[in-house]
Fold:
Amino acid sequence: MKIEVYSPTIRRKEMDAVLTALVEDKIGPGEQSKFLIQTAKERIKFDFCISLRSPVFALNLALKSLGLETGQGVIISALSPAYYFRVLEEMGLIPLFSDVQSSSCCMDRESIEKTIAAKPPEIDLRCILIHNTLGYISDTAAIAELGIPIIEDCSLSYGTAAAEGETASGNEVFSILGLEEKDMLTSGGGALLYSHQRRDGSVLRGLGDLPPEYGLPDMNAAMAVVQIREGTKNLLRRREIANLYTQSALRTRHKRLIQPDRKGESIEYNNYAFPLVIEKGVKDVKAYTRKKDIIIESAFDNTLIANGLVTPEQCPAAYSLSLRTVLFPIYPRLSASDAEKISKVIQTLP
Structure:
C-alpha cells in the first residue's frame, strides 16, 4: 500500500462533531461558527475575527479593508499560492514579486527592500502580503519596520512560534488562517480572518453583516473546533516524526530548510511538512521512493513561480527551490511502522 504525502488528520472526534451538526435544523453559518471563533480566540488571542467559506474571500476582504485601490502595488513572495495572483488581478492591484531566503523559503526584510528598490516609481506600494510557506514564518517584526501594512497568511504555520498556540507575530494588520484540505488545520474548507489590534479589529467590524453565502457553514466549523482542540497533540506527533526523519536526513547530502529566528528569538517549527532540498537528481529521488511505495511531491507545484507567473530571473532563489524541493509524508495519523519505513528510505536516498 502506497504512503501518500498528504493525509488530512480527521479522526472519530471530527466525524462525530460533523454528524452532530448535520442532525441539527441548521447547517449553514450559525452557532457552530460563533463557537469556532470563541475557541480560536482562546488560542490565538485576536481582537476580532470573521469566519468565511474560503481563504479567497478572506484575502479579498483583507485587501479591501486596507483601502487598496486599482493600480496600487502589493509585494508577494514568488512561492505564494497561485490564487493570490488571480485575487490581485481581479481587484486591479499590481503584484510585486519578492525572492526568498534559500535556507528557509521565506521573504525577509532584505529581499523585500530589493523589490521596493526595483519597483517602477509610478506604482504606489500599499501592502506586503506574507505567505508562511510550508509553515515557516518570516521575521515580521523586522519587515514591519519598513512602515508598510502587512497581511500575514498563517494557513500552514499554526503552531510555529515561540509560544505554543501563537500563529502570528502581532506585527500584521490582518491575518488569515485557512482551513482547507492541505492547511495545518482543516475543516474541509474555509478560513478565519482576524486582527490582533483593536484599531484594526474595528475595521473588520465595520464590514457589517456579510451575506450568509460568505460565512463558514456550521458543519465545517464543528470540524475546525475539534482540530483546534486536538492541535497540541497533533503538533507533538509531528515533532516526533520530524525528529526521526531529521536523523536520517543528516546522513544524506540533501539539505533541510531552517526556520529563521525572529529578532534573536528562537522559533520552533510546527513541522507542517518535511521538505528536503535535493542536491541533484530530483527525478531519481522520486523514482526511488516510488519503488518503496512512498509518494513524494514537489513542494512548490501550486505556487506563482511554478505556474510561470514569475520568471526565474526575477526570483532566482525561489526558482531553484521550486525545482529541487520535495516533501515527504508527515502527518499525525502516520503509523509508527510507516514513519520508520520512510526514515530508512530517507537515509538511503540517491
About this structure: The domain at 231-347 is CATH 3.90.1150.10 (Aspartate Aminotransferase, domain 1).
